[in-house]
């Protein structure tokens, strides 16, 4: 019998809170629990506080998880809700990704008052993006476009666009949908040109290994299909030492018992891109991801990432 509220740790942005509320709602429905059986604990992370520089310059993805993971380890929260694409590939000892919610649409959304698509933007237009992957893909498709660093939460980025600071921006469609902002999208980018970030569109839940009561609660809302896809994508990223310093795209999709992973790596200026596809049984998701990463590494050669 659960006597005290289950404490759900999250960042404080509107999107992070929407994801925490979705997790709480699914747990309430799965177990017939009232809202007061849960407490949402907002934790300010380093990544939220540093807004003036690219994350690649100050420590990468872990800046969005460090303080939350410390709270898990010191037991001031019971579980943490994250965007999977923010998660480093190596987690602290004693913590694990123990549940995934059903994955949303993985595509990137193009938003602009100036053009219907990225290709329709006028010559020399300015696009705001803080993602090295998106920056490199924009430059590859449109070398004439100026891409500027563009930090802040979803609402901040949309406000900057409204103010005319940039002509367009790209955001994850999944996040916009979760915020009820799907109608701001001008067009969606095909995953052929624009492979998403590893984990894009998937909410993951991190908890302490061996915490049986929490694991039992989470088992009821876990989506094995999303986990299978993310296992492959994260294995791929691990091999490539994926960080915020490397433009990498990766997407695993499942058809019946077959998993297909597509991955790409670009030079930051978009001048070079390498793509790879690997398929196999879903039971070998991690192996497929690792092999795809190794094959892509071999294709790129040792100098590619060094430069």
UniProtKB/TrEMBL annotation:
Annotated Porphobilinogen deaminase N-terminal domain residues: 6-213
So what does this thing catalyse? 4 porphobilinogen + H2O = hydroxymethylbilane + 4 NH4(+)
Q: Which Gene3D superfamilies match?
A: Periplasmic binding protein-like II, Porphobilinogen deaminase, C-terminal domain
Q: What class of enzyme is it?
A: transferase
Signal peptide per UniProt: none
| Claim: Membrane is one of the keywords in the record | no
Annotated Porphobilinogen deaminase C-terminal domain ranges read 230-297
**UniProt cross-references to InterPro entries, sorted A to Z:** HemC, Porphobilin_deaminase_cofac_BS, Porphobilin_deaminase_N, Porphobilinogen_deaminase_C, Porphobilinogen_deaminase_C_sf
The cofactor required is: dipyrromethane
How does this protein assemble? Answer: Monomer.
- What protein name does the entry list? Porphobilinogen deaminase
**What organism is recorded for this protein?**
Roseibium aestuarii
């Amino acid at each position: 019998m659960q006597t005290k509220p289950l404490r759900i740790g999250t960042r404080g942005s509107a999107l992070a809170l929407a994801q925490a509320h979705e997790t709480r709602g699914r747990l309430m429905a799965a177990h017939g629990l009232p809202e007061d059986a849960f407490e949402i604990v907002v934790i300010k992370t380093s990544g939220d506080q540093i807004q003036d520089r690219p994350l690649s310059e100050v420590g990468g993805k872990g800046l969005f998880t460090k303080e939350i993971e410390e709270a898990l380890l010191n037991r001031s929260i019971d579980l943490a809700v994250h965007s999977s694409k923010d998660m480093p590939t190596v987690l602290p000892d004693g913590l694990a990704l123990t549940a995934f919610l059903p994955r949303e649409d993985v595509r990137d959304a193009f938003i602009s008052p100036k053009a219907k698509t990225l290709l329709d933007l006028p010559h020399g237009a300015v696009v705001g993006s803080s993602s090295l992957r998106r920056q490199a893909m924009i430059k590859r498709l449109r070398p004439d476009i100026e891409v500027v660093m563009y930090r802040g939460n979803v609402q901040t980025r949309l406000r900057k666009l409204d103010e005319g600071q940039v002509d367009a921006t790209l955001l994850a469609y999944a996040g916009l949908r979760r915020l009820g902002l799907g109608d701001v999208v001008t067009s969606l980018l095909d995953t052929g040109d624009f492979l998403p970030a590893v984990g894009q569109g998937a909410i993951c839940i991190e908890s302490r290994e061996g915490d049986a009561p929490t694991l039992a609660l989470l088992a009821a809302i876990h989506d094995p299909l999303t986990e299978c896809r993310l296992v492959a994508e994260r294995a791929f990223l691990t091999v490539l030492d994926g960080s915020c310093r490397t433009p990498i795209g990766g997407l695993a999709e499942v058809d019946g018992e077959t998993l297909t992973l597509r991955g790409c790596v670009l030079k930051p200026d978009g001048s070079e891109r390498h793509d790879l596809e690997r398929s196999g049984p879903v039971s070998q998701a991690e192996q497929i991801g690792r092999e795809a990463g190794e094959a892509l590494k071999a294709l790129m050669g040792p100098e590619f990432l060094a430069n």
